[in-house]
Fold each of these.
Amino acid sequence: MTLAQKKSIFVSLGKFLSQFSEKGNQKIAGLAHNDAFFDAFADLIQLSQSHNGWYTPEQVNFAIQSWSEALTEENLDQWLSAYEIKAHQAKTIGLILAGNIPLVGFHDFLCVLMSGHKALVKLSSNDQKLLPFIADYLMALEPALKDYIAFVEGKMEHFDAVIATGSNNTARYFEYYFKDKPAIIRKSRNSVAVLDGSESKEQMVALGEDVFRYFGLGCRNVSKIFIPRDYNFDQFFNGMFPYQDVVKYEKYANNYDYNKAVFLMSNFKLLDNEFLTIKEDPGYASPISSVFYEFYDDLTEVQERLKREQDQIQCVVSNSLIENSIPFGKTQKPELWDYADNVDTMVFLQSL
């Protein structure tokens, strides 16, 4: 397959995915293989929560819509224009995927196929249905992809390189197990917001999206805020208020009750709005239903610290206070050229 053919296939996938949203599914006439896949995918979205309690239809639809917006001809052209992808012998790339949020491993899967390699995928037990369905649709669009996509259970064997995502603990295992293979090993990271009190109400509501989307389970979710010492917390809580219904979801509510109780028994000083606690803490990885905060006196100190500790940070949100930060409300809609851990996956794949 040529690069142009692969682009066309993924543009078609984007159009297929665009039919599904939280507001309701709308079938588009004339899409290839739509009759065979539309109803089945709609059913899978509704059933996803039975496979993983965090995968509510709302969250799954958001992930699907995000990918439908990313997989356009314009975006693919802009992304791939940075690389000179030449014909080469296809290598088999082992993909060990996370399952914390829906389709979290799709970008790695896309990169492998667009670079001309074969994807040997080991799914997380938390996300075993969505990507295989999408792979089936892709192979229906282009049967030649059957030679480039495989899913494996149990031990992964017969691969040339690996991209593995996991916790800090599993990363140590990956680094040992794959020490003789070219590899990208991803560890736990968190995202932060840097505020100065001048943010608008709309920006603070958008920050709530960065905090609560996927119930805070993603590495791109904001789990900590840096604030000036005289910060008015009413600004923060007013921005979070529109997301109060999150506590009506049982799994989230259980985490909120548990983590709040642990904090209180430990005599930690908390601020609480009955669905989110915020706690002063130097760490980055706050538990579900909680956000850490830390005061600053000098913004330069925050900038320097984030540079020193960049291996712990996935992305930074601010109103242009920090270099290369992203706008409020955009953490869970990365562009195709936004790479996890700032490691260019396409460059890695082209080097093999």
Amino acid sequence: MEQDLQSEQTQKKKVPKNRVIVASVVLLVGTVALLFSLAASISYGAADIDLKTVWEAVFFFDASLTEHNIIQELRLPRALTAALVGAFLAVSGAIMQGMTKNPLASPSIMGVMDGAAFSLALVFAFYPAASFVQMMGFSFVGAAFGAMLVFGVAMMAKGGMSPVKLALAGTAVGALLSSFSSGISIYFQTAQDLSFWFAGGVSGAQWTGVGWITPVAVIGILGAIAISRSITLLSLGEEVATGLGQNNTWVKVWGVLLVLLMTGAAVSVAGSVGFVGLVVPHIARFLVGVDYRTIIPCSAILGALLLVLADIGSRMVNPPFETPIGAITAMIGVPFFLYLARREGGSRV
């Protein structure tokens, strides 16, 4: 009996170490795959450019060569923007799922993204001369507004909040904000400007945008890693976290601010790209376990990889035209969402 207990304790001690090894492998393989996908994204386009030229354009830039200029001015900022936006949305989704204990939580479902898009519709209508930084600020405020509406509606539901009710509230509020955005764009004749943001894409990415969202990446992702242990405790239940001496209010405030910051930045440069924040954290959790100290960094890498590959796919579906990147991610995310909604709906409504 004692030997059995000792063997069980030994196994429990080994689990975290094994998870760290698995997480390290996922991060290493994911980073290598991300680098190759970035190279493929830069290489592939209306004019295919070989990888040797890509290497030379990145590290030995020659302004006299047309291919080098195409890479530096168009394709490199596009690829980097896709990677950063994918990381933002995936990490935001992981934070939301951990804090709310809701497997259906993500920026695209919880009203965060639709709120940010709604604020941009107002900007295009009433303040078309807004700078990129101002657009990011308005996206931040709109994301907060959308999230508040969703949680407010879900809390008023009979029987209290549940994952499915929260998702339904997010879908309803998202549809409402989207219809308001469409009405504003039609009335003020800004539909053409706003259509890019609704479709989602990084084709218009520029170095200016990369320069502004890079600090957001540093603050957002490092901030998420800094509170990852607290999110793990919160995901076990508020009573458990409180019993261990954690200030749950502080964790939630910082978590929400990080989500709004990263989602606002993502929408301001790439529009409404859905389901990345839903799917990727589940993949990361399946691979590395339930500890958010490993889920969050793995989600960042896998989210970046997914969106870069989706951007490549958007150019391959109907060349030389481009399919909205949001349509590519929706093809992956919608079946996954329906599976989760069915699973959760069967257990908690």
Amino acid sequence: MAIERIEPHHLEQQLNRIPGWSVVAGKLRREFTFPDFVEAFGFMSRVALLAESNNHHPE
């Protein structure tokens, strides 16, 4: 499956609609803060399962 990049102007439009996201050094970025390790690990695990089910493996 070929990966299609979003055009920079289109990406900027989309980022304006979704708070908290930015592009840093050419990569999509958002920082999350959790009250404790268990919450952070649970979130990471849920994201990992979603990424795996969609065959998407972010850096």
